[in-house]
Amino acid sequence: MTACAIEGGTAGAATTADPGPEESGEPEEPVGAESAGAEGAAGAEGAAGAVPAGPATPWAGAPRAPGTFTLTADGAYGARLTAAPGAPGEQRAWYPERWTLDGPEPYAVPLPLHQPEEPDAQVVPLADGRVLIRRRVADRQMFSLLYPTGPATGELALGAVECDGMTLLPPSPDGSSVYGLSAGDHSSLLWLVAGGAFGPELVAEIPGHCSGGVWLDRAGRMLALDRQLPGGGPVKAVAVDLERNGEVTPLLQIAPSSDDRLLLADADSGLLLIRSDAPGHDRLGWGVLGSCLPVRFPECLRPADVAVTPFAVQPGQMLMPESCAVALRIDGAAGSWVGVWRPQGRRLHQLAAPEGWPAGAGYWSRDGVLHLPYANAATPCAVARIEAPGDDGPLPETGGTDGTDSDASGTEPSGAVTPPVVCKPVPLGQAPLHRAAPPD
Hints:
Elements: E1 2-5, E2 17-18, H1 36-47, E3 70-71, E4 77-82, E5 95-100, E6 107-110, E7 122-125, E8 131-137, E9 140-149, E10 152-162, E11 167-168, E12 178-183, E13 187-194, E14 201-207, E15 209-215, E16 222-228, E17 235-241, E18 247-250, E19 260-265, E20 271-276, E21 283-288, E22 295-296, E23 307-313, E24 326-332, E25 335-341, E26 349-351, E27 363-364, E28 369-374, E29 382-387
Parallel strand pairs: 2-22
Antiparallel strand pairs: 1-10, 3-4, 4-5, 5-6, 7-8, 8-9, 9-10, 11-12, 12-13, 13-14, 15-16, 16-17, 17-18, 19-20, 20-21, 23-24, 24-25, 25-26, 27-28, 28-29
């Protein structure tokens, strides 16, 4: 695989299992800005904590977005592919759209060019307000920066990478860099596609098939990827040091044969959200980066008949991972809605999402307010603000005979599985799930 540019233009080993993820151009006018009154009403509704659990009501006139709504690391900007509503079956003309979310009123700016985008294009916002777009053209991945220039859209071509497929990773915490991952069966290539000096740059070649992508720090140096080694075997999260030529170190090693994936990480508290089948089946768990304490798999995070996926962690909770509020996307037969959970609270709060919420998009403020962007027929661009529900009230009763807390409501803190037997605390990457065999 090769790249061409257009001219001018060791983390702490984590966790054992305790069975018990510049502004450019002319000034722009807000497009579809939400009124202050409507926004305040949404915030008041969330703050009251009285939003009933249940799925978001779908907006019948909205086109089905081909990709996802992506936010910058600080939540200031968002970007997505969108199209004007039309008759069912009508061909859509997709174009990028940038949302400004850090002002008094959110607003969206369309960024169309002379021809519509393909549905498989990817967009990622940068901290300066520009939007990176990845387009596939034959066997090449083309990259450009888009920005508003008065009534038109400006485009700065960055270059291309020759490969069949590539996935853009979440925006770097530095706000100016975007990385892409081209995964193969035997090795995966990590590219810096925006923020380099001369167009796309190859950063590292990592043995094995890699996926995922979670930032472990605020400097944009340590990146976690889920890797399966050549020839098969379990999937394990590894840390990639971008300042040491992509040096790879183990991150999650809960059991030798378990699939251990990292879903989310908070750089302030070190809280990790993990998906693993180490307890015997696929479970959502949490741990702390660099801690000797084990991963826990709360029962409240596996409600029946739904899929639960974390998408945002409350920042700013220094040395207090148990107090971080975590936002989760809950998908069921009726649609998608929102869950809020804290490790110390041991209960999952389920809340209705606003109409037109792009499921899985949102961010926390440091003071525990969840921001959910949404768009519907009445409001083309808006943000619902929901204060994290409190965990007041009696905790689940303890009555387990195996030393774990249990409760009939399913809110016990960890699964009732025999815990590992170890003589002393050990790093997450070294603790076994079972008693070691006695020496011969």
